[in-house]
Structures are given as structure tokens and as C-alpha cells.
Design goal:
Layout (H helix, E strand, L loop, with lengths): L1 H9 L6 H21 L5 H6 L6 H12 L2 H14 L4 H15 L2 H5 L6 H9 L1 H33 L6 H19 L1 H29 L3 H10 L19 H18 L1 H8 L4 H34 L14 H4 L2 H8 L3 H39 L5 H21 L7 H15 L1 H9 L5 H21 L8 H4 L2 H17 L6 H4 L9
């Protein structure tokens, strides 16, 4: 924080317009948080915005929450290396959102606050505790690479005056401070502004860059010449397991789809809706927004590779995973080296807006889980609203510190994102969907699913060396993790007694009120 101020003042804040844009954005962000903090009267205000959000506000906050460092760095990097085929990763999100739209009413009508609370109501306390632990691990990993993304942006746009490590500290401090101030109330309303800023910045940049490199014909010709026009392009190079392009691409598609189907951020915003009908309408418009923005970000990555070929910007590496770490920097590099100053300022402000917005949302979820599902459930059932708010804020501070310590556990944003998505998606999503879609699902089946899915991801990622087994389907953790999780839910449920109708009935309510 101090070094950012020194870089801004000592290096001449007005001499670096990109840094100025980010500083102004961060100051405005804290101001909004301070104002909204006055409106927080109880725990539900902090956690689910008092269940008062109209659907247009939900669309904005859902969009800004989902588009984060995973899209702006790993998604753009995939576009740089694979062209249109890089959208295999994003496509999983689109399918996941579409499927959730069909059960949005049921989700909202549970009147829950957290995903572990849903699982406890359906399967028992054991499922809630396991889900809480998995959510904390996966979501803090996601928060950590948002911090890393912010560090990258500040380092690139300041030309090294702010180091990446110092940029990570600045991003972490602002994201945590903003979340502490007003929780969901501060997050959702600035998300609407962030979503608009992000959409305008990315679309205008796409049009400008397309013209600069010679139009779409030139972009398509360059993509075809570089082998980025095929359905799976260079996807085989995205993994060192030796698996083919289709197997690797689909192994990225599935975790993202599973994460969206069970994403606690999405569920918490649905819980925050005024009514079930508004929640479903918000999701329909959300999928349209995600489709457009993820595609635009992919194309910005591809345009970056074309601009590098033409000498308009720095070459970030070959179109393979070998240059993956640098190619993830394509959008901030375009902002500084290719775009005109005003547009570049807008784009870097967009980058920081999206990163902070996603970080605070993914930070709020585990803080809410620990407050609601641990503190209130087991430690202090009669806690006052004032105490709940205080504990929630302390949880945000503590978890923000843990996320900061996780920043260097993965070499790239893509690797961190993939691991977090798969950890959460393979372990929680099948049981969560089963609660709303399969009356026969039982607590035993849910426990088998969650433990099995999480166990496979941990073993395949950190313990075993499956790439040496000679099987492409076993080399990538996605396939065994999903199979074990779904099989655990189905077999564990069929081998145990069906749940009582009074337990199941609340999960199949279709009212719009």
C-alpha cells in the first residue's frame, strides 16, 4: 500500500495515467464500502443483502463476480495460444448457467443463506461440515489468484515501479477492506458498476484492436496460419500428461461446468433475490452476458497474438503452454502498449474492478459459511445481529490472510483456477444438484460423493503421478474425480433408505413469490 503511494507520487502519478486510473477506482471503491456499511443492520444484510435484490442488480453482480482473473488472465492466455478453441474452457460455464436456470426457483424457495445450510437440511450435519471445509479450501484458492492477478496488473502498468509482490499486497488489502465494510450490500451494488465498466472497456477495446491489426480477415488468416483455427488447436500442449487435445480441452470444460452448477456465489445471490421469479430471470440474462464477455476476452487474447506477430506489442511467447505464464499477461500488455491512453486507462480500471469484485465475492462465501454454519450453528446459537456482523468481519480478515499465503502455491492462474474449480465441482456439485433433482438422494450418498470427489482431486494433483499410467483418461484428474463422485452419490443413495417426504418436499417448490 505504502509502495503504491510512493510509486504514484514519487514516480509522478499524472505521468502514469494507468496507475492514476487504478488509484481513482480503488479510492472510489472504499468510499462506496464506507457508505454501504451504514446500511448493515443485521447478519442477513451482510450475508444476503437482506434478500432484497431486484433481478437487474442480480445480473450485474453475477456477471462481475464470475468474470475475474480466471477469465482475464487464463481465458485471455488460452485465446492467445489457442484462438477460438480456447473457448472450450469458458463453454463449461455457459452450459452450467443454462442448467441452473431450470432450478433457480427451487433454490430461492429454500430460504437458505449458504450452500452448507442447504446440504444440512437435505442430508444432515455431516454433509454440511464437509461442504464447508471444501468450500473454504477451493474458494480461498480462487481468492489467492485474484490477488495475484491484481499484482500482475499493477506491475505491468507501472513498468515495474510497483513489483508484483507489492501489487499483490495492495490488491489483497483493498479487496479485504472492501468486503469487511459492508459484506454483500457493498459488493452487489458496485458489481453493477463494475459489470458495466467491464463490458464497455472490453467491447471498445475489441473493436479498436481489430481495426489496428487489419480487420477480421487478417485475424482469421493469422489464426489459421498459427494452427489456432482447429476445433482443439493447441490444447494438447496445455497439459504435460501426453493426452490428446480433445481429452485435455474437455477436462477443462467439465470442472467449470460443475463449478457453475454448484457455485456458492451464484446460490448466495439467488438467496438474495426479492423472489424466485426474479432469480430465474437474472440467470437467463447472466448467461447472455457471460457468453458475450468470455468470447470478447478470448478474442482480445487472439488479437494480442496477432499484434505481437505484427510487432505492435511485445512477444509474450510461443502459442503453446511453454509460454503460458507470459501469455496470461496479454490484456494488460495490450492496454499499455497498443491501445490509446484513454482507452488503455479504461481497460486497466476494468481489470482491477473485475479482480477486486471477484476477490471480495469469493472471500465473502467462506466467511459466511464459517459464521453461519460453524459459529452460529455450534458455538453461539443466540448471537445478536451485532455479534454476527462482528464475527463475519473477523472471518473476512482471517480468511483474507490465509488466501494471501496461498498466492504462490500455483505457478499460473490457469493451474490454480483448474484445481479450485475441480475440487469444488467434483465434490459438492453432484450432491447439491441431487438435493434439487433426485428425490431418492440420501445423506450417505452425498457423503460418499463429496469425500470421493475431493479425495481423487487431492490424490491426483498432489500425491500420485497418473501421467505415468499410460491412460489418457486417468492422466487428467477430471474424469476419475467426476466418475467417483457421481457413482458415490448414486450407489450410496440406492443402498440406503430413501429420505422422508417432509425432508425432500421443500427442495421441489416452484413458486415465483
Amino acid at each position: 500500500m505504502i509502495h503504491l503511494a510512493q510509486a504514484a507520487i514519487g514516480g509522478g502519478l499524472f505521468e502514469n495515467p494507468y496507475l492514476l486510473a487504478i488509484v481513482l477506482y480503488l479510492v472510489a471503491l472504499v468510499g462506496v464500502g464506507l457508505k454501504k456499511a451504514r446500511a448493515v443492520k443485521g447478519g442477513e444484510d451482510f450475508m444476503v443483502a437482506g434478500r432484497s435484490l431486484p433481478w437487474p442488480i442480480l445480473v450485474g453482480t453475477l456477471l462481475a463476480t464470475w468474470i475475474g482473473s480466471g477469465s482475464l488472465f487464463s481465458g485471455a492466455g488460452l485465446g492467445y495460444r489457442n484462438g477460438f478453441a480456447g473457448l472450450w474452457s469458458s463453454g463449461g460455464a455457459w452450459v452450467g448457467i443454462i442448467l441452473v436456470a431450470f432450478i433457480a426457483r427451487r433454490i430461492r424457495n429454500t430460504r437458505a443463506v449458504t450452500v452448507p445450510q442447504v446440504l444440512e437440511s437435505r442430508y444432515g450435519a455431516g454433509a454440511s461440515i464437509i461442504a464447508m471445509v471444501i468450500t473454504v479450501i477451493a474458494y480461498l484458492t480462487i481468492v489467492s489468484y485474484q490477488f495475484k492477478g491484481g499484482g500482475k496488473v499493477l506491475s505491468i502498468i507501472s513498468d515495474g515501479a510497483v513489483s508484483m509482490e507489492q501489487g499483490i499486497v495492495v490488491t489483497a488489502v483493498f479487496a479485504v477492506l472492501y468486503t469487511v465494510l459492508a459484506g454483500m450490500l457493498s459488493v452487489v451494488y458496485t458489481d453493477v458498476v463494475n459489470g458495466a465498466l467491464m463490458t464497455i472497456g472490453c467491447l471498445v477495446s475489441l473493436v479498436y484492436l481489430t481495426v489496428q491489426v487489419g480487420g477480421m480477415d487478417q485475424v482469421l488468416a493469422s489464426a489459421e496460419a498459427a494452427g489456432k483455427w482447429g476445433l482443439f488447436a493447441h490444447w494438447a500442449a496445455e497439459s504435460d500428461t501426453g493426452a490428446s487435445g480433445p481429452i485435455v480441452a474437455i477436462s477443462f470444460f467439465v470442472p467449470l461446468m460443475l463449478l457453475l452448477l454448484g457455485d456458492a456465489n451464484m446460490y448466495q445471490r439467488i438467496f438474495s433475490a426479492k423472489n424466485a421469479g426474479g432469480a430465474r430471470k437474472a440467470i437467463v440474462f447472466w448467461v447472455l452476458g457471460v457468453f458475450v464477455l468470455e468470447t470478447v476476452i478470448n478474442q482480445l487474447g487472439l488479437l494480442g497474438s496477432v499484434a505481437a506477430e505484427q510487432g505492435l506489442m511485445s512477444d509474450l511467447g510461443a502459442a503453446t503452454a511453454g509460454g503460458g505464464d507470459l501469455t496470461e499477461n496479454v490484456i494488460p500488455t495490450l492496454a499499455v502498449e497498443v491501445l490509446p491512453t484513454g482507452l488503455g486507462m479504461l481497460l486497466v480500471a476494468t481489470l482491477m474492478a473485475v479482480i477486486v469484485s471477484t476477490a471480495d465475492s469469493f472471500l465473502l462465501i467462506p466467511a459466511t459459511n464459517l459464521t453461519r454454519d460453524l459459529y452460529q450453528r455450534y458455538l453461539h446459537k443466540d448471537a445478536t445481529d451485532r455479534t454476527v456482523i462482528l464475527v463475519s468481519r473477523l472471518m473476512v480478515l482471517a480468511l483474507g490472510g490465509v488466501a494471501f499465503l496461498l498466492v504462490n502455491q500455483f505457478p499460473t492462474v490457469l493451474e490454480a483456477a483448474f484445481t479450485a474449480y475441480l475440487m469444488y465441482g467434483a465434490s459438492i456439485t453432484p450432491a447439491l444438484l441431487g438435493a434439487f433433482l433426485w428425490r431418492r438422494a440420501t445423506g450417505t450418498g452425498a457423503l460418499c460423493s463429496m469425500v470421493g470427489g475431493a479425495g481423487v482431486v487431492i490424490l491426483w494433483t498432489f500425491v500420485l503421478e497418473p501421467e505415468k499410467w499410460g491412460s489418457p483418461f486417468l492422466a487428467e484428474p477430471t474424469y476419475p474425480a467426476v466418475v467417483v463422485s457421481v457413482a458415490g452419490l448414486v450407489l450410496g443413495s440406492l443402498l440406503t433408505r430413501a429420505p422422508a417426504e417432509e425432508v425432500v418436499r421443500p427442495f421441489f417448490v416452484e413458486r415465483d413469490d
